[in-house]
Amino acid sequence: MKTIIEPFKIKSVEPIRFTTKEERIKILEVAGYNPFMIHADDVLIDLLTDSGTSAMSSDQWAGIMRGDESYAGAKSFYNFEAAVKKITGDEFIIPTHQGRAAEKIIFSILGGPGKYFASNTFFDTTRANIEFTGAEAVDLLVEIGKHPEQRAPFKGNMDVEALEVFIKKVGKENIPLIVLTVTNNSGGGQPVSMQNIREVKNVCKKYDLPLFLDACRFAENAYFIKLREKGYENKSVLEICQEMFSYADGSTMSAKKDALVNIGGWLSLNDEVLAMKCRNLLIVTEGFPTYGGLAGRDLEAIAQGLEEIVDEHYLQYRIRSTEYLGEKMLSAGIPIIEPPGGHAIYIDAKRFLPNIPPEQYPGQSIVCEIYIEGGIRACEIGSIMFGKYDEHGKLIPAMMELVRLAIPRRVYTQSHIDYVAEVLIEVYKNRSKIKGYKIVYEAPMLRHFTAKFKPL
Ligand code: F0G
């Protein structure tokens, strides 16, 4: 059959509260034109993030009931540990309450002034955790990854030549580790090829540097490898995941993505001394090493989620449904990062609204319009999130002005996605009437969460 169906039936439903356009205009004004400030109950389709928003399966809910809540040595920890080991092959598995907690631990141990870390692209919390220690985070994405309109199978790859130049420039003794983010969230949810992982590993080996995966969307990345990389078409996704992790010396993970749970994460590694240091810090900041800030039931849900995430019917539906939205938008002429990513579609706001300059935040204009038009919540990933000011207070814009439509896992059906496309097409048709925004309040750090805006 041609039609790819959702590979699940729906047992429990969560009603959507409908609002009118007039109500949404008011709601947005009260929220200071910032979608992070809107009550979720006032949103029809929430595409703010794919993180922690997955629908759990009946087996995961059964796991919640089975959760062993012993403080130390809970059965659920051992189930969790075995499930993570099966995928990563790593020796030491440390649970954390989410991805950034794992990052905080590893980077506060390895970071500090004078240290440098490199990645294809660091996610913003990862970068913040590195910079917070006084170290520097450097992105070395391949050139094609910086061009939204150009298609390539692996636009999340790291520039291997640039990596070597970087190592020679700052000195290998100042680089505690190299990170590959799979898939590359900040660069359009684009995958990294196995060949690139291997090449990066070879450079790391040459200079005796450890390689870590920021593994949040490892299964989506593996499925892209299966679809697009020669030699992998007949391998199982689990085998591909295992090979990806086999080149890494460790990983940080947000289980809120590709472990299909609402909270959780891990830090995995093979270096025993480093693992001991991490566990000591974990005890101070997260919890005892067999629960790490989670409940036993959360660990059980992660263990089950890791079984389900490598299911190829699930991944086929997942990757295809994101692509389906992307195709509908492209056929209406809406500019997006091409090809569509794994977990999200990224609208290219610069091309959508060429008359609105970065200082007037074109991405935010789109975010506001799609909320008003259809109650859809999305997220600006552009100069509000990444813009900085120069010494005269003038905005230094971000490299790209994007709007991310992140798709929660197993939550929305095809008709929800059809509705999203319809709203976007309507907004695009009326784009000549859209105005820019100015910031009227902002916090000194991570301003996108709390900033307030006024339409111009
Ligand atoms: N790394 C990547 C690539 C991420 O996308 C995220 C989270 C994290 C690390 C941090 O994990 O949220 O569990 O602490 N991304 C979410 C998003 C927030 O919306 O893309 P966390």
Account of the 3D structure:
This protein is an alpha/beta fold and 456 residues long. It has two domains: 174 residues, Aspartate Aminotransferase, domain 1 (Alpha-Beta Complex); 251 residues, 3-Layer(aba) Sandwich (Aspartate Aminotransferase, domain 2). The strands form five sheets. A seven-stranded mixed beta sheet has the order 2-8-7-6-5-3-4, sandwiched between helices. Helix 1 crosses helix 14. The chain is globular, with a radius of gyration of 22 Å.
How would you sum up this structure in a few lines?
With 456 residues, this protein is an alpha/beta fold. The protein is built from 16 helices and 16 strands.
Total helical segments: 16
Low-confidence stretches: none
How many discrete domains?
2
Counted beta strands: 16
Share of helix, binned: 40-55%
The CATH first-level class of the largest domain comes to Alpha Beta
Ligands and ions found? ligand F0G
General shape? globular
Can you summarize the main beta sheet? 7 strands, mixed
State the CATH topology of the largest domain: Aspartate Aminotransferase, domain 2
CATH architecture of the largest domain: 3-Layer(aba) Sandwich
Gyration radius from CA atoms, angstroms: 22 Å
Q: Averaged pLDDT, please?
A: 97
Order of neighbouring strands in the sheet with most strands: 2-8-7-6-5-3-4
| CATH homolog superfamily of the largest domain | Type I PLP-dependent aspartate aminotransferase-like (Major domain)
